[in-house]
Here is the input.
Amino acid sequence: MTLNFWKMNGAGNDFVMLDNRDLALSLSTEQIAQLCDRHRGIGADGLLCVEPATEGGDFKMRYYNADGSEAEMCGNGARCFGSFVNRLHDGKLTLVRFETLAGMISAEFEGDQVRINMSAPHGLKLATDLPVAGDVLTVHSVNTGVPHAVVFVEDLDTVPVKAWGAGLRYHDAFKPKGTNANFAKVLAPGSISIRTYERGVEDETLACGTGMVACALIHHELTGAPSPVTVLVKGGDTLRVGFTENPPHEYTDVTLFGPADFVFQGTVTL
Ligand SMILES: N[C@H](CCC[C@H](N)C(=O)O)C(=O)O
Here is the structure.
C-alpha cells in the first residue's frame, strides 16, 4: 500500500496527515505506530486522518497517538487538521467544522495561525494531594477533550518530567484511561509556561494543545487571571487560550490560537 502524506507541526507537536475522504485507507494500530516511529518510520507524535462527516460537520477528524491508540481530541492536531483541509480546498475556506470523538470542533484561519473552538471542558477538580514517584504533588485535573493532570511548580527546568509524568499518566487516580500530565509555572498573571508528558506518546512533547487549555483554565481558577491566558511551551512557541466562565467553574467559548505549519509532503509504502 502506498500512502501520500503531509508532515505538519503545531508549535512543535508533529503529525502525519492523511486524506482518507474516500475511506480507502484502513490502517492497523501497528501500521500507525510504524509511521510515527522516529527511527523506523516518518516520525511523529501522532497521525490525523480526514474522513467524511457523518454528524453534520464538514469533515470528521480521527486522531491517533504515536503508539497507535486513538484519542478523542488533539488541540495542536486540530489546528493542523483545519489547515490541511483548507489546503485540500486550495486555501478557499475561512471556517471549517469537524467532528471528533470529543464533539464538534471548528477552525478559523488567520495566515498561518489557526483559532480552534474547543469542546466544552468537563470534570474540573482542584488540589488533590497525590503520591507520585516518591513525592506528594498537589494535582489539579480537567478534561479538555482528553484528560489532563496539572501541577504548578516554581521551576520548570528541574521538574522530573519523565518520572512525575509517567507516575501521573498511570496513577490509580486516573484509571482506567489514564491521563496526560502537565507541569506549569506562572510567569506573570495571565502568562504561564508549561511542559507536558503525553499519554500515547509516553514522553514529553514540545507542545500539547489540550494541555495548554487545561493549564490556562486552572491558572484562571487559581488566580482569577482573565481571558486570554498566554502559554509558553517547551518548543518555544507562545499560544493564546481564550474562554468565558459562566456559570462559575464552567467554561464556554474556549479557544486555542496558534501556528500550524506544513513541513514536507511525501509518499510511503507499507
Ligand atoms: N496524547 C493525547 C492526545 C493528543 C493531545 C495533544 N497532542 C494535543 O495537542 O492536545 C491523549 O492521548 O490524550
